Amino acid sequence: MAGFTKKINDAVAGSIVGRRFRLEGSGHAKSREGSRFLTEIRAGLATFFAMAYIISVNATILTDSGGTCVCTDTTDITCTTDLDYNLCLGVIRRDFITGTAAIAALTSFCMGLFANMPIALAPGMGLNAYFTYTVVGFHGTGPVTYRLALTAIFIEGFVFVGLSLLGLRQWLARVIPASIKLASGVGIGLYLTIIGLTYSAGIGAITGAPSTPLELAGCLQSELVDGVCPGSTKMRSPMIVKGAIIAGILLVSIISWPRNSSVTYFPHTPVGDDNFNFFKKVATFHSIKETLNAQDWNVAGASGQFGLALITFLYVDILDCTGTLYSMARFAGAIDEETQDFEGSAVAYLVDAFGISIGSLFGLSPVTAFIESGAGISEGGKTGLTAMTAGICFFISIFFAPIFASIPPWATGCTLIIVGAMMCKAAKDINWRYWGDSFPAFVTLAVMPFTYSIAYGLIAGIVSYIIINTIIWLLEAVSGGRIVPADKEFREPWTYKIKGGILPAWIVRAASGQKDFWHDHSEYPVTTPSSPPSSLPDYTHNSEAMVGNEAKVLETGKANEKLS
């Protein structure tokens, strides 16, 4: 058997496929040590099974936005009990199932084919919750309509294209203080935990407002509507584990499928009958009917929340995808220690950027790189063949939409709690020794879950960091250095500068007169670890990996190194 697999690996390595993906033995100057064809296939399967939960979880969360469904009930603006509205929700949930699998298939395959990186992509956790519960609101009760939010995401994708070409994504990711980035991961983890505990998208362990158990308030008591501050009145009051996730989802889902059970997902109701009839098809192709190309381009009358949503999507995506790509590239041994860059980084960013815009055409929240790609890398994945294999698996899953659409929210709610718990580990890496770093970090991680908004948490943390550290700087300047806060020697280094500038290498080469500026003629070898990691780093979510990686860079004094 070993001889047979060696023959296959050697045959592929010696072909054009081996040279294209730089397999070991291909003869390429930058072949990746230890990369084998069959190992890459196995690694791709590991990546898919580690992140397959996103198909049902993402659909469940996005369905809470109401999508394109229209609520006509004048007594209940959420139409929670409206039959026609709930039947419509069933249709768009199937749309989201198909769309999620399709965009994950497309972007993962393209990441492998064009960037040659073993990193898979899909709609990001955290961003989908922000999209649903903060921007659009439960069943469309938020400040921005579903269609207009998709427009913001479409625009964001093309803004990313420009930022990627100019090399600004890396710089923007470095500007944010490390403690704020670490706290962002923790805050998002707590945020997801609350969602997993609610009724609408979780196990129903806590409740409060009809859809959001916690919200930003601050309005006059006379302005409360059903115990919640309307959007226009907020803040106006002067008083102011590996494989375990998939196994758990499958177990709970199977228990919930029998119709005569007290916990059935298919009760004998019109909605239950409709869901059960679709479930019985088992394997079929469900075309995207309601959420395809649903953008609203009439942004002239959009509120300031539209701009806030666009900026927040940009910021979180920059940190999320940038950090994940570099974390996984380093784990795969593809980082060049001199440039702190990896092969195909510019193409990888462009795949992510175009994937965001294409995903919005499918009616989805932003796409990003997944830290679960580390499951495949830990299996030996080093090239784009790993991501392409995962992409093919996601494509196959499109035709099993009835199964994924029949996974109840109480099966995926525990997933959110697990992910949230894992993300909170980043709290230990926050610089708690100096209050100029620790207090803004605490504000960030506290405001996110307690206002049910990622955006408010980020804004509160960044503003408090600027105010506190500006005051400290002014006091030191005025006192001639005599007034210095305690433990300032433990302050984390911060700078907006990057060694060599922020322009990417291809622009530098073009400016120097190199005609084929898109080619890097420096034939430095790709560094690989002498002893590959034996297990996957204990990360569960993109944001945690991002903030952990950024903190490590800063702590080792490399914050100014070039990311071209």
TrEMBL record:
<dbReference type="GO" id="GO:0005886">
    <property type="term" value="C:plasma membrane"/>
</dbReference>
<keyword id="KW-0813">Transport</keyword>
<feature type="transmembrane region" description="Helical">
    <location>
        <begin position="383"/>
        <end position="404"/>
    </location>
</feature>
<feature type="transmembrane region" description="Helical">
    <location>
        <begin position="144"/>
        <end position="168"/>
    </location>
</feature>
<feature type="transmembrane region" description="Helical">
    <location>
        <begin position="239"/>
        <end position="257"/>
    </location>
</feature>
<dbReference type="GO" id="GO:0012505">
    <property type="term" value="C:endomembrane system"/>
</dbReference>
<feature type="transmembrane region" description="Helical">
    <location>
        <begin position="101"/>
        <end position="124"/>
    </location>
</feature>
<dbReference type="InterPro" id="IPR045018">
    <property type="entry name" value="Azg-like"/>
</dbReference>
<dbReference type="Pfam" id="PF00860">
    <property type="entry name" value="Xan_ur_permease"/>
</dbReference>
<feature type="transmembrane region" description="Helical">
    <location>
        <begin position="306"/>
        <end position="326"/>
    </location>
</feature>
<dbReference type="GO" id="GO:0015854">
    <property type="term" value="P:guanine transport"/>
</dbReference>
<keyword id="KW-1133">Transmembrane helix</keyword>
<feature type="region of interest" description="Disordered">
    <location>
        <begin position="522"/>
        <end position="542"/>
    </location>
</feature>
<dbReference type="GO" id="GO:0015853">
    <property type="term" value="P:adenine transport"/>
</dbReference>
<protein>
    <submittedName>
        <fullName>Putative xanthine/uracil permease</fullName>
    </submittedName>
</protein>
<feature type="transmembrane region" description="Helical">
    <location>
        <begin position="346"/>
        <end position="371"/>
    </location>
</feature>
<feature type="transmembrane region" description="Helical">
    <location>
        <begin position="180"/>
        <end position="206"/>
    </location>
</feature>
<dbReference type="InterPro" id="IPR006043">
    <property type="entry name" value="NCS2"/>
</dbReference>
<dbReference type="GO" id="GO:0005345">
    <property type="term" value="F:purine nucleobase transmembrane transporter activity"/>
</dbReference>
<keyword id="KW-0812">Transmembrane</keyword>
<keyword id="KW-0472">Membrane</keyword>
<comment type="similarity">
    <text>Belongs to the nucleobase:cation symporter-2 (NCS2) (TC 2.A.40) family. Azg-like subfamily.</text>
</comment>
